[in-house]
Design brief:
The strands form four sheets. Strands 2-1-3-4-5 form a five-stranded parallel beta sheet, sandwiched between helices. It is built from 18 helices and 14 strands. The radius of gyration is 28 Å and the shape is globular.
Length: 453
């Protein structure tokens, strides 16, 4: 396990050296600084687990320095060192965010006790935050909007394969929700209480990506001032999600293949392999089979990751989900922006249904975020939906009959959703007779029973 990294700030050279020696003897990594500005720079460029700050510094008091540090690193616990008789200041320090205080002079045992408790408190706080995030993810999973047949098939696949450890390959255009499905697989699996870590393989250059994935030893390369656990190690007994795997370099493809085959890897600069138990989920918007044919992706790796393929449909292929997605995002955005939005006008909904959505669900959410931000009414009107495209004919525009059918089906889905599958209520809201509505439901293959709660 990596040693905890501590920052100590005190303008008394002798005391600073004593504290540094004592903490290092307890196997902590210590950065000792006398100058406040240097302390601020250190926090801005490095990650610390704990700060020990003297109350009286050369140019300012330690409490104000602590508050400045908390602006850069809000979760960093701080212990304030106070002189004997400064209890009032120590209590003030705790009111303003210090974890605790330590009165000088103190012995090594007392210092060790306070530091150990502060670090344990930080660990527990991090675990609580992780669990809160996990619960939020579970809640979102239950609210994945999927009424279309294609998305239902995706979720049925997720439910079937979640309990397995087989590698999953998710393919879909940008913005279709690949990471959301990866998280759903993890949260529906026996590994749900372990870590889920994700990385975009296209976001980092090769050397940094290797270090992020597999970790590195101290001194492995310039700037490697301490050892680092990679994402595979962090995901031990959990799941790792490798997004845009099609952008991974050939040399890294070889190393990933070794992990998949042997469940072992070498951190950068290490001669000792690490074993790992991890569920691997990969995703890409590229055609890996075609890349294999063009010698741009290793064939053996392709077959290793292409065990359980999941194809995410583009939004234009699941237009019946657009009204439900729009309603979901409107509620979410209305709450975030503290606006009371009742919904979309029919013309605004029609513009959503007719758009080709090259950016998929992400583009839809961004479009509605703009509309909610700009509206001064409680109903989103047509002029706020894709205003830059108003009056233009979009590429890939559907034939009128297909567009009308898609809009009609989406409208019916929304009716059934609002009426909880009650056809009489749905017919009343639509201003149609029940037999007419039943005929439309049959035309589009919709079963009112699927919408009952």
């Amino acid at each position: 396990m990596a040693r905890a990294k501590l920052l100590v700030v005190d303008d008394d050279r002798n005391l600073l050296e004593i504290i540094k020696m004592r903490l290092e003897s307890m196997d902590y990594e210590v950065t000792a600084i006398r100058d406040e500005e240097a302390a601020r720079q250190a926090v801005a460029t490095q990650v610390f687990d704990l700060a020990v700050i003297d109350l009286q510094l050369a140019n300012q008091d330690g409490i104000s320095l602590m508050e400045e540090i908390h602006l850069m690193s809000p979760d960093l616990p701080a212990i304030i060192l106070t002189a004997h008789g400064s209890i009032e200041s120590a209590v003030e320090a705790m009111k303003r965010g210090a974890y605790t205080y330590l009165t000088k002079p103190f012995d090594a045992r007392e210092l060790s006790l306070h530091v150990d408790r502060a670090l344990e408190n930080r660990r527990l706080s991090s675990e609580v935050n992780r669990l809160k995030g996990l619960l939020a993810e579970r809640y979102d999973f239950k609210n994945i909007v999927a009424r279309s047949d294609k998305m239902r098939q995706v979720l049925e696949t997720v439910a079937r394969i979640a309990g397995m450890d087989s590698t999953v390959h998710i393919h879909g255009e940008s913005g279709t929700g690949k990471e959301l499905i990866a998280r759903a697989i993890h949260l529906a699996s026996p590994r749900q209480d372990k870590a889920f870590v994700a990385i975009n393989c296209a976001a980092l250059p090769e050397n940094l990506l290797e270090s992020e994935l597999f970790g590195h030893e101290k001194g492995a390369f310039t700037g490697a001032i301490r050892s680092s656990r990679g994402l595979f190690a962090q995901a031990h007994q959990g799941s790792i999600f490798l997004d845009e795997i099609g952008d991974m370099s050939p040399s890294l493809q070889v190393k990933l293949l070794r992990v998949l085959q042997e469940r072992q890897f070498y951190p950068v600069g290490s001669e000792k392999p690490l074993s790992v138990d991890v569920r691997v989920i990969v995703a890409t918007n590229r055609n890996l089979a075609e890349m294999v044919r063009q010698d741009q992706f290793r064939e053996d790796l392709f077959y290793r990751i292409h065990v359980i393929p999941i194809e995410l449909p583009a939004l234009r292929e699941r237009r019946e989900d657009i009204p439900l997605l729009a309603d979901y995002f409107l509620k979410k955005l209305s709450t975030q922006m503290n606006k009371k939005i009742k919904g979309l006008s029919p013309a605004a909904m029609q513009r959503l249904m007719l758009h080709d959505w090259p950016g998929n669900v992400r583009e839809l959410e961004n479009t509605l975020e703009y509309a909610v931000a700009m509206t001064v009414q409680d109903v989103i009107t047509e002029d706020l939906i894709l205003p830059g495209k108003a009056g233009t004919i979009e590429e890939g525009l559907q034939p009128l009959t297909e567009a009308r059918d898609a809009f009609e089906k989406g409208y019916l889905v929304r009716l059934l959703e609002m009426s909880h599958g009650n056809v009489s209520s749905a017919a009343t809201m639509a201003g149609r007779y029940r037999p007419d509505l039943y005929a439309l439901l049959k035309k589009h293959g919709l079963n009112p029973g699927d919408f009952k709660k």
